[in-house]
Amino acid sequence: MDKEKAQALQVTKEIVVKFIEVGRVSPQNFQEFFPAIYERVRETLREDAGGAESGETRD
Fold first, then answer.
1. How far apart are CA 36 and CA 34, in angstroms?
2. Distance, C-alpha 7 to centroid of its chain
3. Which domain of life is it from (predicted)?
């Protein structure tokens, strides 16, 4: 597993656990939410990496 995927997986797990803690997701239905959250985290990592490489800054 490459570094980006490992980071995305770790962040996604933390987000899903927090959602379970606050009651927005249950352990029984987390499989419905995990893929969408994971893909959004990966997109965000790619966007941030692309901006960092091109010298862009975020406001």
1. 6
2. 8
3. Bacteria
- Express each pLDDT in 20-46 by its tens digit: 999 999 989 989 999 999 999 999 999
DSSP state of 54: T
Q: Tokens in use for 37?
A: 């959250």
From residue 9, how far is each of 18, 39, 47, 58 by CA, in Å? 14, 10, 16, 24
For tokens 């959004």, name the residue.
40
Contacts of 29 (CB under 8 A, 6+ apart): none
**What pTM does this model have?**
0.75
| Predicted confidence (pLDDT) at residue 56 exceeds the cutoff of 60 | no
